[in-house]
Design a protein that fits this description.
The complex is a heterodimer of chains A (363) and B (399). Chain A contains one helix and 29 strands. Chain A is mainly beta.
């Protein structure tokens, strides 16, 4: 990630602008998602109704803050910071790590969080609330918890637990309040993802120093490897037609591609080569599950977000006036399709910011 | 002064003595200074914080209730902490009330937004039933968010234990009545400032309590002081031919023990049947009383107030007869040396006031003060004392 050199004068100007923004009435520009403080905006995640956008701000000082932005179309109000219990007040470093939000249709976001040096746990918060609360108490789900994902019907939550040491897939059922352990292996699993009917889970497993993709039937706990190779295959998600989209690293280190396979693991095909791997998001599908959004890693092609159908038959480009675009996320609000993505305002900018664009008319 | 007047005065004195013992702490409390109240407020506030650090939320609730009873202004952080403890327990309406109190102290924007969030997700509901009923409240689809789930679970528990519910519930569809019940009633909770009142009729009830709400053994042991004044006029034998050698005025102390059984018809009113023993020892004299009692009891909170009709036998032996006795005594044959040994049957009344201090569910440890009066027609027996014992605990639901 390029960092431009910044002179003392420019830092002073930015500091004054920042101070002014805190004091003066705020007027959000169309598209830009504002927040107090500075850092890289990353990992946007839309609520189911497209009314809110959760995102992270990372200063690479050990803490990561999460914010909720309320969206009026592509206009956002100033974002509200999500605080964990025990958070320090004020605008200084929060000493917390809050990240990886997933939304429930009730308007609640579930995410990972920890106080500095503490254990990662799952928390939940709704926009407008002041402090997040723990989703599953330690008495119920001890150990570090991460990678939350919610089933499409909103009735269960899958996550990774390191209670046994390495990271196993577990689910929580909201009607019975029961936990279910789906994997119990000596290796680590990550990135669980539900099928549309909620009966299967995809996940990544690290074995033999590489990442592979597995699918598990939740009821029978039978699993099947769908994709593996010399490189890493990771962060799988189901598309609308049952095929699976994932990131694949093969050719050279740091080089990532976007690939897809049929639901049974056949028909492996390339969707895009040389893409910019998001910080921790899965492939960004449209709400109807028919398109996937991505950005290129090549700086000459990184001034746009690209959308492609899962079968590779169609492509749409969304040009941006910014550079180093990445981390796309697609939301749906009252029938309007909104694209959120991060970018550098200029090649020498310090921090990535978050932009929102209405792309309904592109389809 | 005749015998009746003397008996009445002694009875009043005993009652006054017992009352003074009971009222003394209340008088002392009323007279405590503002500094004492502030010290108590500080102590309770610190205890609240310590309990919160240990996640002992029922304890935090209890301390907050004690703070409210002091009727002194509380600070913002105290109300906030109390709101947090209510949240952990699922008491959403209490959360809202405590946030309101906190906001009155300081117009904090986080408190305002938290109240608004509750207003946007919860509605106010009053389910009107009867505390003797067990009512089943259900929500077919439980909420996803843990705090909303706790709110529903709390309401379900309150309805089951107390036959009704007043509070806030997450917006959604609810059912009164068990899944296999013949009759159920469905209702929807919506947001809004007004309480939606729903009457629970008997046909919706899962079960109701019988005639006896609770029952259990009663047992006491303690110390009693007994006085039996000498009759002031001659007491004759049944055929009226001879004068009885009634003991002189005797007073002394000894043990008192009582066992029996209590039946509660409501959570306030009960009856008990007991058997009591007490004795009086003074020098070489001894008296033993064996009495049966039928109590009417009031059990408000931890108080136990009893009034009983009693009847039993007093027996005594010793020396020293009443001044009325005249059997030709001379200097070498004093009344004080005349031995008495006899018994009589006496009826009367008893009053006791106790307070429950310890919990041995389903029993409760109590301390009681009591006094009694009995008369055999010629002689009175006054007794008073303090005792400890166990009684059945009244099953009450504490929210």
């Amino acid at each position: 990630m390029p960092f431009g050199s910044v002179t003392c004068f420019e830092r002073t100007l930015r500091g004054l602008a920042f101070a002014a923004a805190l004091v003066l009435p705020v007027a959000s520009q169309a598209g830009e998602v504002r927040f107090n403080g500075e850092g890289h905006a990353e990992n946007p995640a839309w609520s189911k109704d497209g009314k809110y956008l959760a995102f992270e701000v990372n200063r690479f000082e050990g803490d990561i803050d999460m914010y909720f932005a309320e969206m009026n179309g592509d206009i956002s109000k100033d974002s509200m910071q999500v605080k964990l219990p025990g958070a320090s007040s004020g605008f200084s470093s929060s000493d917390q790590v809050v990240m990886d939000a997933t939304w429930h249709q009730d308007g609640i976001a579930v995410f990972e969080g920890s106080n500095k040096g503490g254990q990662l746990r799952l928390y939940y918060a709704a926009p407008g609330g002041s402090v997040a609360a723990e989703m599953l108490p330690t008495t119920k789900a001890p150990g570090g918890l991460s990678f939350p994902t919610i089933s499409p019907d909103g009735n269960s939550l899958a996550f990774i637990s390191d209670q046994t040491g390495n990271g196993d897939v577990r689910t929580w059922d909201r009607s019975t309040d029961n936990l279910n352990q789906l994997t119990a292996t000596p290796v680590s699993e990550s990135f669980p993802s539900y099928s549309a009917d909620g009966k299967k889970l995809l996940f990544t497993r690290k074995e033999n120093n590489s990442l592979s993709i597995y699918q598990e039937d939740i009821a029978t706990k039978s699993e099947k490897q769908l994709a593996s190779g010399a490189g890493d295959e990771t962060r799988p998600v189901y598309a609308a037609d049952g095929s699976i989209v994932f990131f694949s690293a093969g050719k050279t280190e740091g080089h990532w591609d976007l690939k897809a396979i049929n639901g049974d693991g056949s028909n492996l095909h390339m969707l895009a080569e040389g893409i910019r791997l998001p910080i921790r998001a899965r492939p960004a599908l449209t709400p109807d599950g028919k398109w996937v959004a991505f950005a290129y890693d090549d700086p000459t092609k990184a001034n746009k977000i690209v959308l492609e159908t899962i079968d590779g038959s169609k492509t749409i480009e969304v040009p941006s006036k910014y550079v180093a675009c990445g981390e796309p996320a697609i939301g749906l609000q009252n029938g309007r399709i909104l694209l959120a993505y991060t970018a550098l305002p200029s090649a020498d900018a310090d921090w990535r910011f978050l932009d929102v664009v209405d792309i309904t008319d592109k389809f | 002064m005749n015998r009746r007047t003397a008996s009445l005065m002694i009875s009043l004195a005993t009652a006054a003595f017992s009352g003074a013992i009971l009222l003394a702490p209340a008088v002392a409390q009323a007279q405590s200074s503002a500094a004492d109240t502030q010290a108590e407020k500080f102590r309770l506030t610190e205890e609240m914080k310590r309990l919160a650090q240990r996640n002992a939320w029922p304890g935090v609730e209890a301390k907050y209730e004690e703070l409210l009873s002091l009727k002194v202004p509380l600070d913002f952080d105290t109300h906030r902490l109390a709101a947090q403890s209510a949240k952990y327990l699922g008491k959403t309406y209490e959360v809202y009330q405590r946030l309101e109190r906190a906001f009155e102290v300081k117009a904090d924007p986080d408190v305002k937004s938290e109240k608004e969030q509750i207003d946007s997700k919860y509605g106010r509901v009053k389910l009107v039933g009867n505390e003797r009923w067990e009512v089943t409240l259900r929500r077919p689809s439980m909420p996803f968010a843990p705090d909303e789930r706790k709110s529903v679970e709390y309401a379900i528990m309150v309805a089951k234990e107390s036959g009704g519910f007043t509070g806030m519930l997450p917006v959604g569809h609810y059912i009164i009545g068990a899944e296999d019940a013949k009759n159920t009633r469905e209702f929807d909770v919506k947001t809004g400032p007004d309480f939606q009142e729903i009457e629970i009729t008997h046909d919706l009830v899962t079960s109701s309590e019988g005639l006896i709400v609770y029952h259990g053994p009663v047992a006491f042991a303690g110390y009693a002081f007994t006085a039996t004044p000498a009759p002031t006029s001659a007491v004759l034998t049944a055929d009226g031919s001879k004068m009885q050698a009634e003991p002189a005025t005797k007073r002394g102390s000894g043990v008192a023990a009582e066992v029996g059984y209590e039946l509660g018809f409501t959570r306030l009113f009960a009856v008990a049947v007991t058997f009591d023993y007490r004795d009086l020892f003074e020098s070489q004299d001894q008296f033993h009383g064996y009495t049966g009692a039928l109590y009417g009891l009031l059990r408000p909170g931890n108080l136990r107030i009893g009034v009983a009709g009693i009847y039993g036998r007093w027996g005594g032996q010793g020396s020293g007869v009443y001044t009325v006795f005249n059997n030709g005594q001379g200097p070498s044959y004093q009344r004080k040396d005349i031995i008495f040994d006899g018994q009589s049957w006496a009826g009367g009344a008893k009053l006791s006031v106790g307070y429950g201090l310890l919990d041995f569910d389903p029993l409760q440890g109590v301390v009681e003060l009591g006094g009694s009066w009995q008369t055999d027609g010629s002689r009175n027996f006054f007794s008073g004392g303090i005792r400890v014992g166990i009684v059945p605990k009244v099953p009450r639901f504490h929210e």
